[in-house]
Amino acid sequence: MKKLKFIVAISLFLLPNLKSEEVALDSPEGWGMSYMSAASLNLSDSFPTTMAFGEIVLTGELSNIPKLNREQQKIGFGGLKYEELNKSPVFGRGKLKVGFYWDSVLEVSYTPPLELKGAKPKNLWGIALSKQFINNDKLNLGLRYYNLSGKAVADVTCSQKTVNQPLYTAGNPSGCISTSKDKIDLGHQGFEIILASKNPVLNFRPWVSIATTKIDSSVRIDAQLELSREIAYVSTEGTLSTLNFGLNYPLSDKWVLNLGSSYTPLDAIRPTPAGGDDDFWNIKLGLSWNLN
Questions:
Q1: What is the per-residue pLDDT across 157-205, written as a single tens digit (0 to 9) for each?
Q2: Does residue 142 belong to any structural domain of this protein?
Q3: Domain tally for the chain?
Q4: In whole angstroms, what is the distance from residue 290 CA to residue 292 CA?
């Protein structure tokens, strides 16, 4: 019996430390997931002009991810533990737009699995359907539904910088011995109301949209510590509101330059002030090519 108890004790010690927690959207952990979701929102890059059925437009888009200060990155343990959130400084995707039924536009997007600073997208696909509903001499109004599915993998809990620090010091308080394989689910869906002026300004075509996004995010933490392997699930859900706007400049009959920005206000309730801007605001640059 003593031998059996010893075996059970050793087995429990060697098994991963499993945890599961659901947090509020404005908690430090929830804010971190919301911030990463805001960086990947599958938003529009132009007003949904009418396309002929089967007409194809290819677009490449690149946007920046603002850098966070160290205090903002303290999102572990309710805002007490530092996590390495400053990974890839940019987010990119390719888009395929096709003229669809009822004068609508069907859109498919994909972010290639390129690794930057320890962060790598994984099966990140988007789909959208948009259509004009009002088209008169002064104003265009359109509606767009969008969806994104997929994940991103990054060494957030135990970054390479953390692993290089001595165990149980301020730089490595948890005892990380190798880089973690943390995975965040970036899936979301939402609607945009898009407005555009009929009259170009210096050949620029301005537009603006209001987007409402439902997120149901989760992070799977997988960190190898000196004494155990920690596997934990942290999830949150809620709604994000985003102001999205831009300018489209036709370079030729086939090519269009897309300039834009999106602003997503985010709340974060922290145990101590962090400074910096907790809202998400980026700059986007894209180029579209009409194949027809």
A1: 999 989 999 999 988 988 999 999 999 999 999 999 999 987 888 899 9
A2: yes
A3: 1
A4: 6
